[in-house]
Amino acid sequence: MFAVDLGGGALLRPIEPWQAEEFLAHIDRARAVVDPWIPWASRSTDLESARATLQRYADLQARDAGRLYGIWLDGTLVGGTMFVHFDAKAGACEIGCWLEPAGQGRGLITKAAGHLVDWAIGVRGIHRVVWQNRPENIASRNVAQRLGMRLEGVLREEFLYQGERHDTEVWSLLAPEWQGLTAGHATAPISPRRGTE
């Protein structure tokens, strides 16, 4: 299994259905802080539902329509990034993330998401990368900004959570903008072979 070194004892690598027990333990630790932002956190409450969440992403990956990657810090799963949607033919994708408190404040999401953006644009030819967050999720907004994304607008009351509607910010990055940001900098993208395992 491939792993991308994020520095400081952190690794980015795929998370798959056979890791459901580890994933569930992580989500149980993270639920209070990720549930408001990640819809499947509240649905992954036992081993069967955790495995179903991971299987859904495995099925998306098999169709080249999405992927899920975990972030391990000193051997413990603390969060992850994912292609929520991936459409190589249309040249568009959406990236999302989550992180439990033990992994916060280390820049792990920015580094991990940067690898996904680099791979999507550099290897798969994606032209447009989207990032969505609720306006009050300042940490997520900060990642979008650090990745060089631009705020396109706000989808008013688009996200339903616990019976209440919330706005969603939409950020985007185009391939030429990313290539301009990374020109002259060494990057460590997920390689085509490793990124499909």
Q: Regions with pLDDT < 50 over 5+ consecutive residues?
A: 184-197
* Structural class category: alpha+beta
* Binned strand content: 25-35%
Q: Give the quaternary arrangement of the chains.
A: single chain
The CATH homologous superfamily is named Gcn5-related N-acetyltransferase (GNAT)
Q: Secondary-structure element order, as H and E?
A: EEHHEEEHEHEEH
InterPro entries: Acyl_CoA_acyltransferase, GNAT_dom, Ribosomal_N-acetyltransferase
GO molecular function: acyltransferase activity
Protein name: GNAT family N-acetyltransferase
EC number: 2.3.-.-
Describe the structure.
32% of the residues lie in helices and 33% in strands. The protein has 197 residues and is of the alpha+beta class. The protein has one domain (4-196): 3-Layer(aba) Sandwich (Aminopeptidase). The chain has an eight-stranded mixed β-sheet with strand order 1-2-3-4-5-6-8-7, with helices on both faces. Strand 5 (92-99), helix 3 (108-122) and strand 6 (128-133) form a beta-alpha-beta unit. Helix 1 (20-34) packs across helix 2 (47-62). The longest helix has 16 residues, at 47-62. It is globular. It starts with a strand and ends in a 15-residue tail after the last helix.
